[in-house]
Structure formats: structure tokens, C-alpha cells
Amino acid sequence: MATIDTILQPDDAGPGYCAILKDERYPSYDWTTGKTIRMSCAPSLTGPYPQPGPPLSPNFREAPTLIRAPDNQDWLLYYEQYAGASYGLSRAPRLRGPWYQVSGNSGVTAWDRYAMPAGLRHGSMIQIDRKQYDAIVAAFPGSVPAAGEEK
Asked: Which carries the bigger pLDDT value, residue 26 or residue 145?
């Protein structure tokens, strides 16, 4: 199976790792999982990894970005609806799920629970601490509110 855009993450359910990847096959009646984000978990970093489970995203999604939610409880999985049309977001309490789609190109603005700047492509995120955040805000005054301020 052809894959791209793979992330390896320690499995929060126990020993091992999970690979979050894009199923690169074109979707069809024979390959309904094509062009979706899927997951395969293995007992060690080097595998062996079984065939991935069911899709974590709708078809025609790529560039998964996996982070912990700000409450450090849930997982957040962002993915791009290509080519650059929009971003979607799925959420799960554990890496192995259950996953559900929170937002993304639904066509119903009231259903979208977050917003991303227009024109984003293949995003990545890293966690920073308060000191790093304050340094960024100081370096780019007026771009984002400082801690405790409203804009």
C-alpha cells in the first residue's frame, strides 16, 4: 500500500508506537479508504506494522498533524483537504480512538468549532511554554495579545 505523510507517535495505550499516515491510493469501490488518514500500531518502533485500521478522516485528506489538546487529555488530528481547500479536525480521548470529526468543510459555518487562517498548507505544530510564547509576542508586537490581554 502506498503511503505518505507519516507520523510516528508512542502508543498511549501501552508499549509500542502508532503510525498515522495517508493512504495514498485513489479512492474507489475497491479501495474505499483511499486518500484518507489512517493508523497502524506496532509493538515496537521498527514494527512490524499491520495493515492500517479504518479512516480517521474523510477522503481526499493529507498532511496529518497530531497534537495533544490544551487540556492535555485528548488528541487532536488536523488534516488538509487538498489542494489547500480547507483544514479538518478530528478528536479522540486516546490515540487508538474513538475518533470523531469536530470540524472541517462541512458547509455549515455554525458547525465549525475552530478556524484556521486562509491559505494554509501542510501545517505542523509544536508545543511551546509561556516564556517562548512571550518572546514571540515581544518580537512581533501587535500580532497577538500578550498573556492576560484582549485584542
From this structure: 26
pLDDT, tens digit, 9 for 90 and up, residues 67-81: 988 888 899 999 988
Rounded Cα–Cα distance for residues 5 and 37 (Å):
9
**H, E, C per residue of the chain:** CCEEEEEEEECCCCCCEEEEEEECCCCCCCCCCCCEEEEEEECCCCCCCCCCCCCCCCCCEEEEEEEECCCCCCEEEEEEECCCCEEEEEEECCCCCCCEEEECCCCCHHHCCCCCCCCCCCCCCCCCCHHHHHHHHHHCCCCCCCCCCCC
Residue 139 class from Cβ within 10 Å (0-12 exposed, 13-18 middle, 19+ buried)?
exposed
Rounded to a whole number, what is the largest CA-CA distance in the chain? 53
Tell me the HSE value of 73 on the side-chain side, using a 13 A CA sphere: 2
Could you tell me the pTM of the whole model? Answer: 0.77
Length of the chain, in residues:
151
